[in-house]
Structures are given as structure tokens and as C-alpha cells.
């Protein structure tokens, strides 16, 4: 996938040693649309603590910039996001805050998938207002296969997904394609519609877009108010369990977990 925009050395954050490091989230602007690109392909754009923090900062900047009418969230490499980084995961509250930030951003957020999306990556897509996917993209909620459940990401997914489809893919962890994602409400439209949708957003007034988004996200935000704390606690207890330790170890060691029949 081609990157949108170029980054200079001056734009690169510095490590404690003073050496520049590559950003995990690229930024570019084009006629009122800011594009934020998850750019950690070596670990399939896994949601590490640094990536989540950098994405949150980029979204804050977009929210404050009067020149930004809408935000596109996309990726480098063949994976939008593989879900939580098991080696350097964000805290559950940090991830909840990120999901809520996307939902509450006073500007439309368009998720773009051209490849794979897994687990927590689907939660991030669920927070977006519009999701576009290429014909050969695929998705999976794989949490049950490592001994946990899609707890925190239910905040953005369950209010949007068709219930029977949610039950199937939550419980089986099986992979599904763009056609199924469209039918269940995870994906809005094919990637081919990208320019038409962005042109439509460019025609909206800032106030109109802000208030229209407020209407369509109200039920999702209600879910945050009612259930966020409970789901954070559930997630923490599951990840601390013996089954999850076995599941994550098996995943990292590329072997079957002990419960696999």
C-alpha cells in the first residue's frame, strides 16, 4: 500500500538517547482530510502502548485543527491491525480512552482496511463512523482462541453489529470476508467508494458534521457510560487467568494451546 505524504526528520520523535525514531502513526493532509496511517508493519500494526499513545495525540491534533474536516484512519503493510500487542500492550483504560476519543471526535473518522484486521483492530474500526474495505480484506475476532473474550471492544462493536453475526464470530473466532462484514454492519462500503465518500464529507459544514455525528454516535456513547468499567475489569481478569497465559504463550510459541481438540 502506498503511503500518503512524506515525513521529514524534524517530524520524527526522539528517543531518550537523542536519536530519531520512526513514527508509528504517519500524518498527511489533503483538502480538509487528515490521513492518519498506522505504520508499524513489522508487528502487523499491533496496538502497543506507544502506538495507542501516538494515535491518541494525532487524533487530538486533528480535533483541534480547524482546517481538518474529516479524518481517514488507514495502515501500511497487509494488516490494518492485528489487535493488542501481547509484548507491549496498552493499559485497558488507555485503549478505552482511545476508542472513546474516536467516537467523540467532533469530525467524521473513516476507517480504511486493505488487508487483514483482527481482534482489537476490529474494535478500532467499530469506533469509526464509516469503514471502507477492499474486496479481498478479511476479519476475525480471535480472542476466544487465546483464552480471553472481545470485552473492551464490545463497547464499539455490539451497538453496531447484527446480533446473530456477532454471536457467531465472537464464539468461533473464524475468519470472514468483506461481504460478511458489510452484511453484519462492521463495514460501510467497498474501498472503491472512498473518493465519493470523502468528497461528500468535504461538502458538509463543520457544525453540520459535528452535530450529525453526535446523533449517530449517541447509542455507542451510552454503552461507554453504562459498561466501560465492567468490561475493563472483565478484560483484566481474563488476561490474568491461567487459560490466557497458556493461550498467549502458545500463540507466541506458534503452537496449539492445551485445550485444542
Automatic annotation (TrEMBL):
<feature type="compositionally biased region" description="Basic and acidic residues">
    <location>
        <begin position="1"/>
        <end position="14"/>
    </location>
</feature>
<dbReference type="InterPro" id="IPR051683">
    <property type="entry name" value="Enoyl-CoA_Hydratase/Isomerase"/>
</dbReference>
<dbReference type="InterPro" id="IPR001753">
    <property type="entry name" value="Enoyl-CoA_hydra/iso"/>
</dbReference>
<dbReference type="InterPro" id="IPR014748">
    <property type="entry name" value="Enoyl-CoA_hydra_C"/>
</dbReference>
<feature type="region of interest" description="Disordered">
    <location>
        <begin position="1"/>
        <end position="22"/>
    </location>
</feature>
<protein>
    <submittedName>
        <fullName>Enoyl-CoA hydratase family protein</fullName>
    </submittedName>
</protein>
<dbReference type="Pfam" id="PF00378">
    <property type="entry name" value="ECH_1"/>
</dbReference>
<dbReference type="InterPro" id="IPR029045">
    <property type="entry name" value="ClpP/crotonase-like_dom_sf"/>
</dbReference>
<comment type="similarity">
    <text>Belongs to the enoyl-CoA hydratase/isomerase family.</text>
</comment>
Amino acid at each position: 500500500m502506498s503511503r500518503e505524504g512524506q515525513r521529514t526528520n524534524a517530524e520524527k520523535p526522539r528517543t531518550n538517547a537523542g536519536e530519531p525514531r520512526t513514527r508509528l502513526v504517519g500524518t498527511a493532509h489533503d483538502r480538509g482530510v487528515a490521513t492518519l496511517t498506522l505504520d508499524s508493519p513489522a508487528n502487523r500494526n499491533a496496538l502497543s502502548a506507544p502506538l495507542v499513545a501516538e494515535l491518541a495525540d494525532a487524533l487530538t491534533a486533528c480535533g483541534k485543527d480547524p482546517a481538518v474536516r474529516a479524518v481517514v484512519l488507514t495502515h501500511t503493510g497487509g494488516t490494518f491491525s492485528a489487535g493488542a500487542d501481547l509484548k507491549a500492550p496498552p493499559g485497558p483504560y488507555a485503549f478505552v480512552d482511545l476508542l472513546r476519543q474516536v467516537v467523540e471526535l467532533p469530525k467524521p473518522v473513516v476507517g480504511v482496511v486493505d488487508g487483514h484486521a483482527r481482534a482489537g483492530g476490529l474494535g478500532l474500526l467499530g469506533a469509526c463512523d464509516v469503514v471502507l474495505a477492499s474486496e479481498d480484506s478479511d476479519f476475525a475476532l480471535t480472542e476466544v482462541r487465546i483464552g480471553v473474550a472481545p470485552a473492551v471492544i464490545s463497547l464499539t462493536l455490539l451497538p453496531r453489529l447484527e446480533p446473530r453475526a456477532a454471536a457467531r464470530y465472537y464464539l468461533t473466532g473464524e475468519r470472514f470476508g468483506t461481504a460478511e462484514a458489510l452484511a453484519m454492519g462492521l463495514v460501510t462500503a467497498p474501498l472503491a467508494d472512498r473518493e465519493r465518500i470523502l468528497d461528500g464529507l468535504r461538502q458538509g459544514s463543520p457544525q453540520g458534521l459535528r452535530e450529525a455525528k453526535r446523533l449517530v454516535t449517541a447509542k455507542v456513547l451510552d454503552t461507554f457510560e453504562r459498561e466501560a468499567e465492567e468490561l475493563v475489569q472483565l478484560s483484566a481478569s481474563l488476561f490474568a487467568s491461567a487459560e490466557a497465559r497458556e493461550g498467549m504463550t502458545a500463540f507466541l510459541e506458534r503452537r496449539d494451546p492445551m485445550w485444542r481438540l
